[in-house]
Structure formats: structure tokens, C-alpha cells
Amino acid sequence: MSDCIFCKIIAGEIPSKKIFEDDEMLAFHDITPQAPVHFLLIPRKHIRSIMELKKADADLLGRLFFKAQELAKELGCGEKGARFVINCKTDGGQTVDHLHIHILGGRSLGWPPG
Ligand code: 5GP
Ligand code: ZN
Predict the structure, then answer these.
(1) How high is the pLDDT of residue 73?
(2) Is the Cβ–Cβ distance between 77 and 61 less than 8 Å?
(3) What's the CA gap between 47 and 13, in Å, rounded?
(4) Is the pTM of the predicted complex or chain greater than 0.85?
(5) Is the CB of 98 under 6 A from ligand 1?
């Protein structure tokens, strides 16, 4: 999608602090971190939100979550844990319409969300 910030990050048109990339996903630090560890993991495929997930994308989502926990461990969250979040659409607080997992760690996080 030509007007999507995350597609532009994938294309290298917007710089990012990359943590990991392969042929189907990319991880990079959030520009406005909400915790000592806060990175985003996105599929290269432009999927607007988790509500737009197709059955054929289900395996991809599994691989994204598997990589998310691997990277969380690499960034030091293995012992104390982290939060793996997908915001969706207006009520879910999604601001970038390209499916992404937030991974937050390095501090104790409150619950429930406000
Ligand atoms: P959402 O609110 O859609 O769940 O999360 C979008 C996230 O993307 C926010 O945490 C925001 O800080 C992050 N973000 C927005 N624009 C950029 C950008 O250009 N670069 C990076 N690294 N993160 C961004
Ligand atoms: Zn996109």
C-alpha cells in the first residue's frame, strides 16, 4: 500500500531501527517506546488489521508470534516476561493500518488498559 507508513518502512523509504527481518516479516523499535523494550513485528504483506486476516494468513500469524517471543527473549524479557499486543481498529486503539504486534517489556505493565 503506497500510503502505509509500515509498507514504507519495509521498502526502506522511511528509516527504522531494525531488529530482525526475513522474507515475510520485519521487527523494529517503536519510535515512541512505552517501555524499556518496545518493538513492533509486522508481516511484509499489507494486512490492514487482525479483523482482515484470511484463513490462509493463519500460519503466518503463528510464525509472527513465534518470532515475537524469540526476539523478546533476545532482548532480555525471557525471565520476567513481556506483553504481546495487537491493537485493532478504532476501539482497539490502532493508529497504523498495517497489522503489527507490539512487544513491550523491561518493566511491570499495568492491567486493565485504560
Ligand atoms: P498502534 O497504535 O497502531 O497499535 O501502533 C502503532 C505504533 O507505531 C505506535 O506505537 C507508534 O509509536 C509506532 N509508529 C508510528 N509511526 C512510526 C514510525 O515511523 N516508525 C516507528 N519505528 N514506529 C512508528
Ligand atoms: Zn502496509
Answers:
(1) 98
(2) no
(3) 19
(4) yes
(5) no
Say how many Å lie between the CA of residue 54 and the centre of ligand 1. 23
With beta carbons less than 8 A apart as the criterion, state whether 103 and 71 touch: yes
C-alpha cell at 8: 514504507
Question: Is residue 5 predicted with pLDDT exceeding 80?
Answer: yes
- Which atom of ligand 1 is the closest one to the Cα of 32? 12
Q: How far is the CA of 16 from the centre of ligand 2 (A)?
A: 15
| 38 Cβ closer than 6 Å to some ligand 1 atom | no
